[in-house]
């Protein structure tokens, strides 16, 4: 605790905006709950994604808040100065830290543990209300007045979130998104007793297209096929590019019969694409092979759903390609 330094602490806390509406006696109550820590340059106070248990008030020095980009690099989004506070949202919302905060230089920080803050709420509700009112105003002002911080956050959120879950070439979802989301979709379907159908699709002879006509034509092929998928799929369906020419489609609340009809429409539409017809090479037309499985009709677990869709795709390719194969209950 603060011990003999209580007087200096109270004098400083009077200058802190979130406490400036408190009386000296009320500030003393808060001061007794604080711990003073010393930080060196580079010291990390909290890490993005970790549990948040403490609110911080800066007495000396500066603290940098940063977030991790998908590349692994850290992006600075805000700098806190003496008298500023941070870390309050993790306490109030019981949420993970939204950023990593580290010391820009040597300094001193007051730390208030959430248990102590909740104790203040219980024993001194009047003090807590004054503090929280000021905190809310300041947090709002940060977003309104610090336009660079806000625009950086919005820009980073839009771009990084999109890059993290979508395929760069096509804009379809990527494998990471599908792998991370499939379990949630399955559990939701199971809980709500709704069907969930999975389509696995490959472009036929895509390797030959790449080898004979080059990667630029290969990319064009992928893009044209994705257009067909997007045209035929519904807003609630999930299209993911799982590999080079491998696609997975997730159809929530969709029966096997409906999914097979959608897949057949996609197959016919892809077959109509004719931009390879004038090429002098081994492949002059496009087609897809598709395998389909459905919960609970042909699979009762997520593992079975994926395996049966994959097995159905194998059957489609083994039986001549350019076809849709729907799994059966007894397979």
Notes on the protein architecture:
The protein is of the alpha+beta class and 331 residues long. The chain has two domains: 159 residues, Jelly Rolls, CATH 2.60.120; 154 residues, Reverse transcriptase/Diguanylate cyclase domain (Alpha-Beta Plaits, 2-Layer Sandwich). The chain is 45% helix and 22% strand. The strands form three sheets. A six-stranded mixed beta sheet has the order 9-11-12-10-13-14, sandwiched between helices. A four-stranded antiparallel beta sheet has the order 1-8-3-6. The chain is elongated, with a radius of gyration of 29 Å. About 4% of the residues have low confidence.
Uncertain regions spanning at least 5 consecutive residues: 144-156
Average pLDDT reading: 86
| CATH architecture assignment of the largest domain | Sandwich
SSE-based structural type: alpha+beta
The N- and C-terminal alpha carbons lie at a distance of 68 Å
Count of individual domains: 2
Q: What letter string, H or E per element, gives the SSE order?
A: HHEEEEEEHEEHHHEHEHHEEHEHE
Could you give the order of strands across the largest sheet? 9-11-12-10-13-14
Approximately how much helix is present in the residues?
40-55%
Q: Based on CA inertia axes, which overall geometry fits?
A: elongated
